[in-house]
Structures are given as C-alpha cells and as structure tokens.
Write a structure and sequence with these properties.
By secondary structure, this protein is mainly α. It has six helices and no strands. The protein has one domain. This is Acid-resistance membrane protein.
C-alpha cells in the first residue's frame, strides 16, 4: 500500500465514524461509543502503517506517529473510562482538545524547518488544530444544553479530520 492509500483509509475511518455520530446525534445510541472505538483503533493501525512508510520524512513520521498515539489513548479512554453519554462527551471534548494541541505543535515544528514543501501541511494542520480547540470548547459549552448538539459537533469534526487525512496524504508522496 502507498502512503496515500494508508492515509486515505485512515481518513475514511474518521469520516464514517463522524457520519454515524451525526446521524445518531439527535437520538443517541450506545453504539456511537463502540463505532468510534473501532474507528480509532483502525485509525491507529493505519497511522502506524503510514508512519512506517514515511520513515525517511521527519515531518510525516512525526505527524502520523502523533495521530496514532492520540488515537490509541483516546480509544483506550473510551473503553475503560466512559460509562455514560456525558462521560463520552467530556472525554471526547478533552481528546479533541489534545488532538488540536498536537496539530498546532506539529504545525510549529513544520514551520521551524522552513521548507516550502511543508507550508501547505503546516497551514492545514495549524488551522485544523485551532478548529479542534474551538470545537472542544463548543462541545463543553453545548453539553449543558443537551448531548445532541455536542454529539453533532463531535461527528462533524470527525468528518473534517477524516478529510484532512485524505488532503494531507498527497503532500507526503
């Protein structure tokens, strides 16, 4: 498999779980948690495969390694910590915040290399990181109003993250 294929499969995992969450956000079902767990473990596997394929590329290696690490920790937190819908929302918001921070750190590291080839990656990751930080605040805020809106934000953000995996993959080929 090529870098583009493994990263695109990673993106499709995120998009499909995001669509599932959006569809069931107004009438939440317990399966949302399990679909996201499966998606995160799948994402981790394909991030690690992509990490292996981009070993000669420091930026790509760091990007996919951080994605794999955050995905597996998030999935394990959902498996062992989350018992209710509110815990799912709170845990998801926290990990979305963490993922946003890792993306901003990644963008700053790419900027330090001062290589023109990485400017597109830096922009996508930096903007995506800021979007994650803002969305995590929205998720915390809307959880007071009801879980439906928080789940909707989680699902939409999963779809956006999935699209960014697909968009980014072409820059590592």
């Amino acid at each position: 498999m090529t870098i583009n294929q493994t990263s695109s499969i990673n993106g499709f995992f995120a998009i499909l779980s995001g669509l599932f969450i959006v569809v069931f956000s107004m009438d939440p079902i317990p399966a949302i948690k399990y679909v996201l767990i499966i998606s995160l473990f799948g994402s981790c596997i394909f991030s690690l495969l992509t990490t292996y394929k981009v070993q000669g590329n420091r930026i790509g290696f760091m990007d996919y390694w951080m994605t794999a690490a955050v995905s597996v920790v998030y999935a394990l937190a959902l498996v062992f910590h989350v018992r209710s819908l509110q815990e799912f929302i709170t845990t998801s918001a926290g990990f979305i915040f963490l993922y946003g921070l890792t993306q901003i750190i990644f963008a700053i590291q790419a900027l330090k290399l001062k290589e023109r080839a990485y400017l597109n990656i830096m922009a996508i990751k930096g903007i995506g990181g800021l979007l994650c930080l803002i969305t995590s605040a929205l998720i915390f805020g809307t959880s007071i109003l009801g879980s439906e809106y928080s789940l909707l934000f989680i699902g939409i953000l999963q779809i956006i993250i999935g699209n960014s995996f697909i968009d980014i993959s072409k820059y590592y080929e």
